[in-house]
């Protein structure tokens, strides 16, 4: 069992790593058998696939910030509500409210479920394509 303080530290370390584009630290936060599920696809992917997505996101953005973070600890993980603000290298800014539900085992994220409305992401991608 992971203690509440350890879960909180993991949640903070995970978000800080994504903001910094530090994929090795993100990988360290993930359990080797992690499943990452998105409501927009309805499909769970493994650690390597998730890291590939995050790598592409980091490469296309000059800044990533998780603002208005609200964490709720669970006995086996946490729920985080936040607003992701990301600046595309072509200029447009993404503002994406989202929720993460993370299950933690052995001090790492073993399942991550991410919920968000995909409309702002589609607009941001179109703005970036037009600006490039």
From TrEMBL:
Naturally occurring in which organism (per UniProt): Brevundimonas naejangsanensis
Pfam families: SnoaL_2
Protein name (Swiss-Prot/TrEMBL): Nuclear transport factor 2 family protein
Residue ranges annotated for the SnoaL-like domain, each copy included: 12-111
């Amino acid at each position: 069992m992971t203690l509440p303080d350890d879960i909180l530290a993991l949640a903070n370390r995970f978000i800080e790593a994504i903001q910094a584009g530090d994929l090795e630290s993100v990988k360290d936060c993930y359990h080797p058998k992690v499943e990452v599920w998105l409501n927009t696809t309805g499909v769970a992917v493994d650690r390597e696939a998730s890291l590939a997505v995050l790598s592409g996101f980091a490469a296309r953005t000059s800044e990533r910030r998780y603002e208005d973070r609200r964490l709720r600890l669970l006995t086996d993980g946490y729920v985080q509500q936040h607003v992701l603000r990301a600046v595309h290298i072509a200029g447009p800014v993404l503002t994406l409210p989202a929720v993460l539900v993370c299950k933690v085992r052995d001090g790492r994220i073993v399942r991550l479920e991410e919920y968000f409305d995909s409309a702002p992401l589609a607009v941001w991608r179109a703005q970036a394509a037009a600006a490039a």
